[in-house]
Amino acid sequence: MQSRHLTAEQLSARLDGQLSESEQRTVEAHLASCAACQRELEELRQTVALIRAVPAAVPPRSFRLFETGAPSRTASRPWALTAWLRAMGGAAATLMVVVWAADAMLPAAQLSPAASALQPSTTVSPTTERSLRSEPAAEKLQVQPSAAAALQSTADNAGVGVAPSGAGAPAGAGLPTQPEGLDAEQGARAVRTTPEPATPEPSTSDRAAFGGRREGVPLRPGQVGAIALGLLAAVLLAASLFIPRRVPRR
Amino acid sequence: MSQPIALLDEERWLRAARDGDQGAFQRLVECYEVAAFNVALQTLRNRDEAADATQDAFLSAYRAIKQFRGGSFRAWLMRIVVNACINIRRWEKRRPTASLDALVEQFGEAPWADASNNDPEGITLSRERYALIQIALSALPDEQRLAIVLVDGQGFSYEEAAQALGCAVGTVRSRLARGRVQVRDHLIKHGNLR
Lengths: 250, 194
Description:
The structure holds 2 protein chains of 2 kinds. By secondary structure, chain A is an all-alpha fold. Chain A has 11 helices and no strands. The two termini of chain A are 74 Å apart. The chains are: A mainly alpha, B mainly alpha.
């Protein structure tokens, strides 16, 4: 026992082969003649072996970042975009129904001054004026089925809650499960459009309905808003159809 | 404990992941999630927090993958894991208990007969001995325990451990030695070393 005992760090590093060359020589020379250090080295060796034998804990879940079963490069992005477009389209369609219904049910007297200023009485012919006032229900029925169909189809995909307050009855009539209150053709159309997600059909029919009303009559702000919303919904839903679907549905 | 994967595959996946290939990054996650979770678990000693830290770390790694400039990927990744653990502990400051029941609760019943367990000495730990080692480890200062977990648990080189812990190689060496000595003393005290 010619030199000082080895430090724990030297012994520990020797187990890992992490001694420098000069250290290595010193350590080996000491170990060769020191039983105490030999014993300590053996204890450390056993300790390390026991630590290394500790089994790995099993993670409670996988930490994959992407929800695709088989790894796919472009999986999540198109679906996220499609879902977003449909959700927005559905929301716009819902708003359109609400705005139009509210507008149609409001008596003209309750319109804001700005709104009445927009429709000077001289330009309104009596007949169209009358039709605007006295036939809101018919107007609604003409618009609702397609809007409701659009709502239904987008809500199915995007999970948008459809609750058109104030227009509950006609919107409900557009649902395929209770077609009573609609004439057969409208009911059939609602049923036909429902299973196909986000058909562009609502947009064209909406435009036709709006176009027929536009001639000679300045639109009230509510109608303008509803038309804008309807167009927005149509554009969004149509756009969602053009997102390439590279991932098969599961 | 660590699963060695072909370095060529890792290189390939890394390059693809840096080019934005999510599938390739997924492969890397699958390779290292057990190691990352175990490092987080040994750091935080709480199963739920460790899972959160691991998830955070993989998300951070995905965002930062373009900044990886070669070297040891697992060391780079474990650095992120350790940082995620520090971030989590900043909010949750509590000292875990070191009873056998608490250990089983946090670490799960150890898979004693796990064939994939890298066990060159052929040692099968008894339940008591396993608990004894875990308790000894949990009594260590964080930095010593992490050095042991990376080098002895994950088979890291001193250089890799230094990179993962953001310290010098010499620091790893001394932390490792002090930690090992304490675990040894604990085992001797309880008559589990001959």
